[in-house]
Amino acid sequence: MTYSATDIAETPASRAAIPRRIKEMRPDEIAELLAHEGRLIVPVGTCEQHGRHLPLGADTLIVEHLCDDLSAEFQILRAPTIEYGVNVDTERGFAGNASVRKKTLHRMLNDLLDTWESTGVKEFILLTAHEHDPHQEALATVITTKARVRVVDIFAVDLHPFLEGQAEPMHGDEVDTSLLLFIAPHMVRMDLAEDYMMSRDELRRYRRGWLRIPQGSSGSIGRPTLATAEKGAAIYAHIRERVRARVFVAPGPDDTA
Predict the structure, then answer these.
(1) Tell me: domain 20-246, CATH 3.40.50.10310, correct?
(2) Global pTM exceeds 0.90
């Protein structure tokens, strides 16, 4: 027995297997889903350098992949990606970089969440893959009328057991590069990867926005040369399971990822 493309697209099994992206859905479909599942996943990315070997949208690609997987599994609505975040300052310019100020990202999210809340969303799950304090603060301080807001930095998950040359995630590093080798290997140029390490104090200052990415760095911090696709698969599975269990399966008012 054969099926046409229309037949396959309309089967309940196929509908359940796909992410529920609101930009691809009609208003009545969205309202129907919100009537029994009031959560909305909002991916927040960045457009910034991650070294010569990775695309500018590395953070975005990672968080979009995770949001799509979780949306498909739990049949939760998934918002269009916020493509821009608050970038870390650099001592030299990188072609294509695009950043917004903390207050700009904060105001945009406030406006978007207010609109979505007015149409029935009862809980927002903001997922990001960017450990920069001003960026995180913009997400953590959004305001709603009644809807719950949960902010998930996927790199807050402990990844130390998977790393060889780092103790924690950095930037365009062993973690980012491994994840991209798993998710989008055609976008990675390992022959261009360059290691550049910082001290723990420098890394702390960098994350808080007190230290620019140095001139001597290609735009990445950490040891991307140690990245592998196999490591990326293991890291991704760990992040997904951790976020899945703590945020989507048994959410509680005091849970953090």
Answers:
(1) yes
(2) no
